[in-house]
Amino acid sequence: xxxVIRLLPDSVANQIAAGEVIQRPASVIKELxxxxxxxxxxxxxxxxxxxxxxxxxxxxxxxxxxxxDARMAFERHATSKIASADDLYTLHTMGFRGEALPSVAAVAxxxxxxxxxxxxxxxxxxxxxxxxxxxxxxxxVPGTNLMVKNLFFHMPARxxxxxxxxxxxxxxxxxxxxxxxxxxxxxxxxxxxDATLHQFPAGSLKQRIAALFGKSVGANxxxxxxxxxxVRISGFTGLPQAARxxxxxxxxxxxxxNMRHPYFHKAVMGCYAELIQADTQPxxxxxxxxxxxxxxxxxxxxKHEIKFENEQAIWQILTAAIKQALGRVNAAGAIDFDADAxxxxxxxxxxxxQPMPQDTLDEHxxxxxxxxxxxxxxxxxxxxxxLMAERRSRITVPRDWDKLYESFTARRDAAAPAIDFDTPxxxxxxxxxxxxxxxxxxxxxxxxxxxxxxxxxxSAGCIDLDARYIxxxxxxxLMVIDxxxxxxxxxxxxxxxxxxxxxxxxxxxxxxxxxxxxxxxSAILEAxxxxxxxxxxxxxxxxxxxxxxxxxxxxxxxIAPADTLRRIVAxxxxxxxxxxxSVLSPAAxxxxxxxxxxxxxxxxxxxxxxLVADLLRSPMPDYTPDGLRVISIITRDQVSKLFI
Length: 644
Known about the structure:
Strand 4 (122-128) and strand 5 (131-138) form a beta hairpin. The chain contains 23 helices and 24 strands. The protein is of the alpha+beta class. An eight-stranded mixed β-sheet has the order 5-4-3-6-2-1-7-8. A five-stranded mixed β-sheet has the order 9-10-13-11-12, sandwiched between helices.
């Protein structure tokens, strides 16, 4: 029999490697820019067309390459960054595997122009689908100019799975943010379809953060700085008031490399446990500098996951550094014992004599007396007797215990036909449900009829507990409804029903609001302009990733337009959804949450009844649109166990 195992051609092997390294246009930009940084570039320009499908061009002023090095760079495992296995433990460069350029060349057309400083002429190299087409001398400036054209042009399956340009551009901007933050000493420019999205000079980390995410983020950061024999930690973390639910920038860097580290993220969040709400997160930009021999970056092809030798020790150092930073601004209620403004505490002298406090007692004072015309206190025995009689009448306890409990018995009997929220009203067997609607009526209509007929029961047994929960009697025991979540469910149903037939009504703002977004989210908002208008927002782009909001959805309760729109955009970004009608449902959830009742907000008895009635009309009253429980039942057995 013939042998069946054979060596794959280089072109096939490169395409297999490309499947791990090159997932989308953003991956290409990451690999090319990291090569520019490793080449010592101090200025990098990125040019993108059609979100990277048509063209990705990276131009740098780095060291450049000779003609032979340019040819060798596209061979698999050809690299200038390591020479032996021992070099893996002393890495100071971004790349080291020698897979990036061969992988890119396997899925696109490549044109490279490069020249070293001091060389009289550069070289031009053309590659298509891992095949060299030409190489020739060319006049160019020192550095490297690499163009990636028609990404995935010969791989229809990979190209088909690319998202819309707005989504791919968002991924590109996310990658650009990571690259720009970790290389603050490099000037960056990024251009998309001939429009300059960002242009940064070399500067500090604080300046780069403010340029990328807005001055509001930069103004709410506090420095984090500590140095030990294990690690040097620097960077910034957010004030508690900067915490948000979504779209919060959070970055870890180690030795100039981006990384994801859930363990260290948990350490940061632990420092804010008592300072922010449980569903919010603070921004942070933390850089770790460690001995390269104590970390392993050779885990994942994209090198985002890194293992630390001293992970537990770094956890403790990181926690202490962030708590110290928060303590300096009194965010954690820290006490500054070195402060100058100390309270003036008198010294305790045990032998010193202290004067006895003097107290005077008016033996003729009468609280039931009235003042006379001459300013003297005149007794009023008759008035005192009347007042005392009224007080006794108010606190008199009835002796007829049967009469005392008559009202409670009446309320119990009236509440007997209680509504069962977990069972369709048509099946409850109560006369109210049977008489309210025919057997073939929709369940929601039957439940609504049963609710109307049980008004007496609810009036007798409905309790608004702590302005957060509604407690009702149920056949199984006690029903507890979360008011806020119930209102979210009701508003969501109304908003989504409206959006399915016509746009939301818009209410013009007396004072327009400004919304500054990261470039990645600004691109999403631009692509979602039609959806945003349908939601009732009137927005206009002012440039520099800033939007002017002049109108907001007309809802029963006022919302914060800028914050609500930010959450909608962050939700689209997080899910990677195409900004079309498919995002109306999550957007309706955000609007409902923004306009829903808050804990402690008072409701009248009629408003409470109306909320319960509206909730019962919902096709899914038990849960909010994002899956949180609205109704819970405390059974009779659970109540009985409380008194065992």
